Amino acid sequence: MNKKLLTTAIVGTLSLGVVTAAEACTRLLWNTQDHGTFVSRTLDWSEQTNPTLVNIPKSSSYVTHLDNNNTMSSQYDVTGTTTYGQLTDGINSAGLSGNVLYDAGMDTADSKHAEDFGTLTYLKHILSQYSTVDDAVKFVEGNAPNTEFVPGVPVRIALHISLQDITGDSAIIEFRAEGPRIWHGPQYTVMTNQPDYDQHLANVERSKRGWGELEGQYSQTNLGTGGNANPEDRFIHSSYFYGHLTEPTSVINGMVKLDSITFKIPHDAPNRPVNGEMAGYATEYNVNYHLQSGETLLRYQWGDDFTQLQYNVKAIQNSGKNIEFDLVQAGLIGEITEKVIASGQ
What we know:
By secondary structure, the chain is an alpha+beta fold. The protein is globular. The protein contains eight helices and 18 strands.
């Protein structure tokens, strides 16, 4: 973790409890008829985060809150990518997966008890302990997470979480003062950022009135967005093109198709003024994976780094190794499963 970069970017653009410059990321879920379940997500941010691929074997010990000493033992292998040292995307060995996206509306209480769960480590805990969206939702309903900070960073990183499993079940979870707000069901396939999820759903229903029947939609159909990269427009954009997906011909084709409709933030795109200067953000990478097979495709694009990687989560989990693998390396490209496994202990 590069704390200097983190402090420069986050302290300069984030403030507690308000909409900020770093308001990006998109997640999509696609449960197909013949080829299983696919997930695609972008990681959009204001600087290079240098993601790592981690594997946390079953029975590993972890803390439930970064400020406390309460530990638990993982019931499942967990593999995923980290941002600033925290798991922001992952799949466990039972086929449950989850994604952390930025959400300026997050409202959580301070930690008061040793056994509290933290917001930044919440996804890791869920994937370590539960095998289905249904079981995870039951846990979330009675266990709201408490505010948690990245060590050395004086501001809160606000977030919300999506969950999905091999049945195509889905849950979108927001954290508000009154407790978790949950949308649970396979119909919740798209997720971006603030405002609240019910506002996104209302936006799509309003926009749909101008789309007409599916078979009559074409390249000149007005999507009813402002035509920019804000979370509401990205949600509508992805919802429209999601409706035009047809059954993939293979696992790889499924990931290619789903990836193609996730909105990518252009580099040097203006976002919003912060302290009198225009702050920008962009898509650093997008990761696509197939829950049944574990096949994963990741495209990285920042600065002088542009590469495509492929790896298999199930093979990595079967290795039983503790792994923390740098996904941004000079010359790293293509199939990397064996390199990832070889790096572990």
